[in-house]
Amino acid sequence: MQLDFEPVPPPPEVVLPPVPQIQQSPFKIRTLSPGNRLNVYAILQATFPTLPDSPPAIHALAARTMIQDLEVGQHSITTKDPNDPDLLARTVKASIARLGKAFSISSSETSFVAVDEPAPDKTTPTHSGRLRQPDVIQIPTRGTPVVVARSSGRGGATSGGFLGQPRVSGGGKAARKQLASTAARKPGSAVVKRKSIAEPVDAPVAKRVAAGGAKRHRRILVEDLDVTEESADDFFIEADKDDAEEEEEDEDEDEAEPAPTDPLEVLARLQSFDGCFSLGVLSVVRLTLDAAQARTALLEGISDDIFATILAMAFLSNKLGAEVERDSWEAMYDKARVFVEDSLQAGGVSVGVDELETKA
Questions:
Q1: How many CB atoms lie within 10 A of CB 288?
Q2: Region labeled Disordered — which residues (predicted)?
Q3: Of the candidates 255, 275, 294, which is a domain's last residue?
Q4: In terms of CB atoms within 10 Å, which end of the chain has fewer, N or C?
Q5: How many domains does the chain have?
Q6: In a domain, 127, yes or no
Q7: Are strands 41-43 and 191-192 parallel, antiparallel or unpaired?
């Protein structure tokens, strides 16, 4: 008996017709009867005049109903060969994918990954779950209010998320200089204790603060601070000189948004809607060989998408570690596997996906 080892020829490629000018659901409007309601959804134009980047909500609703009709077989799609059910099924799948991509709708052929990107918040809770809100007092000295904040004693490192830890100010350069300059108490200086919290602020100072005319003041986290009129004036002269520099540093640090460092999040951003990955996965997957050598050793002649997708699959299943739950990456893996299987079948490759993943 002679065995034929020639690969099975790939099925003919699906060529979708142009998008019709009017798309509607249901595709066939039945006869209307008195007392019955019939909802008909239609897509009349591809974009909205005022929002060219996003389709209007009514078009997305119409696309969803059309996708549901296609999934249950209620459509008027025909092919060149009416006796080829496989070609008809693949044409329906391609039509569903085209609608899903055009209107960002999840379906049996499309899915989307949402990545939360919270903005860094300077009011970050500590490990105890409470916010640092130090008590603030204002002490009048020669008409200039000195702002002093008593430390709450609940400091510590803040917890961070995927996008890095937001920066927490420690009082600024001027505050540290002031703490260092007041370490040695001058003779005859007035000592401010914690009981000074209840001391009143003079009326002219209160009016200036209420009117918004007071200068920007800095909070000093201290337990007991010796404040004299001379040292307070020196502090604010020094602080005003340093304000502009520190504000520029704050703006630079706020604008420089940290890049994601979690490998699972990076892979989620790199995965396409159809499940494939690009060569950008090499920023996460470290190879022991050169990329060209690794591709040849894996399977000679494969495309960049298949090569990168197999690497991502092997990384997800073997390199993430036991601390990462399988539920968090299983959907990404399954979608990538379907893409590789379909691509290998279309290219007439007889090697299995599991074998390629094991080599990777």
A1: 6
A2: 150-172
A3: 255
A4: N
A5: 3
A6: no
A7: unpaired
Same domain, 209 and 270: no
User: What is the Cβ-side half-sphere exposure of residue 108, based on CA atoms within 13 angstroms?
Assistant: 14
Boundary residue ending a domain (229, 255, 281): 255
Residue 26, preceding bond cis, omega within 30 degrees? yes
Q: Say how many CA atoms lie within 13 Å of 29 toward its Cβ.
A: 10
Residue 4 lies inside a defined structural domain of this protein: no
Tally of CA atoms within 13 A in the half-sphere of 27 that contains its CB: 12
Closest CA to 234 of 174, 154, 157, 168: 174
The tens-digit pLDDT sequence of the chain (360 residues) is: 566 667 777 777 788 888 887 888 887 887 878 888 888 888 876 555 555 566 566 778 888 888 988 988 888 888 888 888 888 898 999 999 988 888 888 888 888 777 777 765 555 554 444 444 444 454 554 554 444 444 444 444 443 333 333 343 444 555 455 545 554 444 444 444 444 444 444 445 444 444 444 444 444 444 444 444 445 444 444 545 555 566 666 555 555 556 667 888 888 888 888 888 988 888 888 888 888 888 888 887 888 888 899 888 888 888 776 677 888 888 888 899 999 988 888 888 778 888 888 877
Q: Are residues 278 and 241 located together in one domain of the fold?
A: no
**Both 30 and 56 in a single domain?**
yes
Amino acid at residue number 288: T
Q: Are 284 and 345 in contact (CB under 8 A)?
A: no
Containing structural domain, residue 32? 13-110
pLDDT digit string (tens) for 10-45? Answer: 777 788 888 887 888 887 887 878 888 888 888 876
Identify whether residues 97 and 187 lie together within a single domain: no
> Distance from CA of residue 32 to its chain's centroid?
48
